[in-house]
Design a protein that fits this description.
The protein is α/β, with parallel strands linked by helices. It is built from 13 helices and 8 strands. It has 2 domains: 114 residues, 3-Layer(aba) Sandwich (Rossmann fold), CATH 3.40.50; 116 residues, Rossmann fold. Helix 12 links the parallel strand 7 and strand 8. Helix 11 packs across helix 12. One of its GO terms (molecular function) is oxidoreductase activity.
Length: 247
Amino acid sequence: MKIGLFIPCFMNELYPDVCVATYKLLKNLNIDIDYPMSQTCCGQPMANSGCSKDIETLAKQFVETFKDYDYIVAPSGSCVAMVKDHYGVFFKDDADYNKVKTSIYEVCEFLHDVIKIDKLDVSFPYKVGLHNSCHGHRMLKLATPSELNIPYDSKLKNLLSLVKDIELVTLKREDECCGFGGTFSVTEEDISIAMGKDRIKDHLDSHAQIITGADMSCLMHMDGIINRNNENIKVMHIVEILAGVTK
């Protein structure tokens, strides 16, 4: 199968190491990967700001770029959710979009549900707290939302359990929002920061050394607060841990 690797624009610019780790992780599993150079932003920032008409050009560019791949894989749950759940209005019953919609996966979702990996030859000897980002958690169903009051399951935790020497800490609130919300963090700065501080405190109280998750945007938000307040904790995207990157 041929995989098209979709790298969100802000990660390409600000977190190239995470992008490389995503590529490394997939290559380590002997997956045939292509990185189409014509890819660009998925349009999520515009959607967050209510500029829906500005998304159409980007949506059509995305579909044209990735329509011929067997699978599209990205290290960002929110960007994947954008393509799956917010492009439909521009395509109606378009065959190419319908294929893209059913072929795109967040990388952990892909590893867990499609490849179904059951072992990883990596070690990460740290105490790790898992942050469940809202889009991936509820829209992609990467884990069980607590409000459903059903037995908890997490695809991210299942993957992290394959890592040697890792210690996953128990948080008081498994799926609390970090407060980022894209442009929400700009328009509602005080609320966003307060929510981020609460999320970080839960990890600190649980003695985590690392906060990990599947969305670099949420981790970026918390990392900024951590650095500003000189907190003794770091953030890492989950693909870095799964790929064997040390911190």
